[in-house]
Amino acid sequence: PEVAHIRTLIEKPxxxxxxxxxxxxxxxxxxxxxxxPVEVLWxxxxxxxxxxxxxxxxxxSLVWRTLHDAIGMRIERATTYGVIEEWGDADLDRYATEGVxxxxxxxxxxxMVPNHFQNNMNTWGVSNMCCTVDYIFHDxxxxxxxxxxxxxxxxxxxxxxNTSISTLxxxxxxxxxxxKRIDFLPRxxxxxxxxxxxxxxxxxxxxxxxxxYTPVFAVLNLRDPQVRAYxxxxxxxxxxxxxxxxxxxxxxxxxxSDKFHYAYNxxxxxxxxxxxxxxxxxxxxxAQEPPAAIQSQYRAHLDLMADMQQYGYVYCGxxxxxxxxxxxxxxxxxxLDNLFMWMECLAVFDPAAIEAAGAEPADVFFxxxxxxxxxxxxxxxxxxxxxxxxxxxxxxxPVTEWHTALFKAFNQVNDLMIDREVLPGxxxxxxxxxEAGDSARVVxxxxxxxxxxxxxxxxxxxxxxETQDHRAHKYHVYLIR
Length: 481
Known about the structure:
By secondary structure, the chain is an alpha/beta fold. It folds into two domains: 81-326, TIM Barrel; 332-480, Golgi alpha-mannosidase II (Immunoglobulin-like, Sandwich). It is built from twelve helices and 24 strands. Strands 3, 4, 7, 10, 13, 14, 15, 16 and 17 form a nine-stranded mixed beta sheet that branches. A five-stranded antiparallel beta sheet has the order 18-19-20-24-22. A two-stranded antiparallel sheet has the order 1-2. A hairpin with an 8-residue loop joins strand 1 and strand 2. The protein is globular and about 80 Å long.
């Protein structure tokens, strides 16, 4: 396998026995082009569901390891996951004293908060917090207290980020006339002071890329050295001075990796539709064509995340793919017959929707964790309680003791859940971690059955802490040594 920028569509039309796959190979503009190799694996014969799942897992594991090694990136692994988020001014000290302890008591090992860099909401009082003004904390001391509370409970601290800035930052960088009602931020040392001549991704029309978020976002060109230098300077400081451990890269697909920068005339000025903007003057052809480029952002995006791993970050992205923990994807009801595919993914537990789809919520909850699809827990700020529903919802979906016991069991065996085998009949899932030098195995039981163990093996029920015989019981987790 080779790391490359490829857009792929795989489709099985209803009523047909064919699978169609369509691949768009993307790369920089050049005088020649070589596509990445495409290999279609076909195994003859008929397989039952469990055999097919285990074949899928063997291929997935190989591809993940190969591609991560190819770009020098670490494979990320999901942990139990909690969120503290509201679309308004944050009370960081209340988060630390009320929200964090509840999440920690529930067995949560990563606690995420939204964007607390300077943003449209906390700086200008307009929508919204996802629009970064600068990669500088609005309340650095408050964030440090919050990080300390998370770390004191043995959890990782995660914060939202993305690779674009608010268009208000561009607008307010050009004060004109006498000062009026805007309290401009200092320019010295700011992002606008540090950016170079080509800081933005330009689309095919020459406009600053915003995806579908026009007119609020200006997407940064990740191939620009000055952009990368400023990004790393700010995020490294956030880690070393405040204590961030994880970045949740919002819109990691549509604002970062799957973008192209069109450079018609790199020597033109940064602003203004005047004679120096030759790409805007369609009736002018210069005697000598200026250098032009169309640049994929894909590898620049991956390299940026790999660099962040080098100074201590864990990468979580808003996409579904090979790299990073995935905090995205379809509704849980879409995943009910394919839970095995969503490992290292974060998901929303919606019992009512699961029941409406004809499934048992407890069964789906247990199997999700067994397949390493981790359920997101929210601290409901208004009601000061934990819920599987979003932080600001009035409807509470309770997080019960049974749920938290399974979260804590997951934490206990997480490091051993590496090589996966679904047991015959899908009565359970068994994991091993031979590369870690540990001969232990972990079994998540979907039904009552006899554990596949040799005579004399020590079996511990992770939920109760008790040793027992070879008989596994439904909804229990076992450590075998």
